[in-house]
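Quick one: sequence plus zinc ion SMILES, need structure tokens.
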Amino acid sequence: MKKFLIIIPIFLGLSLSAQVNFNDYFQDKSLRFDYTIGGNSKETKAYFNKLKQEPFWGGSKKNLIDKFNFGDFRVSVLDSAGEKLLYSRGYSTLYVEWIDTDEAKHTSRSFYESVVVPFPKHRILIRIEMRNKQNVFNTLFETVVNPKSLSIIKDKQEKYRTQKLQYSGDHHQKLDIVILPDGYTKDELKKFHEDCKRFMGYFFNVEPFKTYKNNVNFWAVDAFSEESGTDKPTIDIWENTVLNTHFNTFGYERYLTTQDIETVRNLAAYVPYDQIYILVNTEKYGGGGIYNYYNLCSADNEYSGRVFTHEFGHAFAALADEYQYGYDNADELYDMSVEPWQVNITNLVDFDSKWKNLVDKDTPVPTPDSTKYFKKIGAFEGAGYVKKGIYRPMYDCKMRSNATDKFCPVCYKTVLDMLLFYSE
Ligand SMILES: [Zn+2]
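Reply:
Sure thing.
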């Protein structure tokens, strides 16, 4: 009996992580699965909306199954019997941020969501899971999809021109970032192209992107807006823009986002992509980045260059903010009986599973905020929006402030691992 107990977990572990042969199961294009998610602070439900065929598969053909286990959600593709895992990816959404707001305590609300998977050759089971506060994934929605179904929309998109800003090679073996403009009129497209070049300059000035420049492709879609700028609700400015971005998301003035996920996906699909970057034509400080969802950044603020890669840390590598903002105690946001799933914050419940191996034995944990430890890896209190009970790896990091343009070693390693995962 004992042998069984030992053998079974090892066998399960292997079958979960083994990558499948892309050509056996998939075609070289994407299937987009759009759904509506809705609920409140107590319950969440998802409803199927539509399926769409998109022309490119921008992702790796080798690394199909997610090895990182990041994100509040996970999309999985299985064979139609639900037995063999073919593809998976973690992600987060605006909805999951909204359910922590006061509004979610007294009202229910829905959000448009969308995931992209490689286009299947045969019938598949597509499954959406959501992580609970104890970090366990539960199935939210699943359905069988027949790739020959007449209900899969195959509209062609030819309205806008595209730009190949930096091409390092085959998009399956590179990290493909598509830049989408918001609030640039047709007359401002030249400015958009110049802004793209400027931001690529900021991007490739930061490690590991500098060293691994040849692992990255940059694309742009020239989607112009009727009006210039973006919505600024606090001063009653409302502009008609192609991606409907706005400041003041959930009442936070600097939080620049869009809920128009359908248009974001429609525009991104003009080119092969892994990450979506929305550049907003405004001088006002702001941005946002949500894991495998999108990045946003204002184009013309003096800090925009640093914000650009900070937000990318969120959307590309699921890094947490390493600053405190709005919450005194950790239990207002986190279940303190388990580690937060983000790799660069800890509540010290299971520090071994985080970066404890990088801490010198003469550095105390928790680590005092003293100049003596400014360059040391430790566990500094105040992170993940919380003042007490959540700790970060270094005194400063790109995920904490604009004072530095460097990722701390924990964030750096995660970004690099992700970059290599996309470029095989
Ligand atoms: Zn960091």
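Confidence is low (pLDDT under 50) at residues 1-15. The helical segments are 2-17, 22-25, 94-98, 103-106, 189-203, 261-268, 304-317, 409-422.
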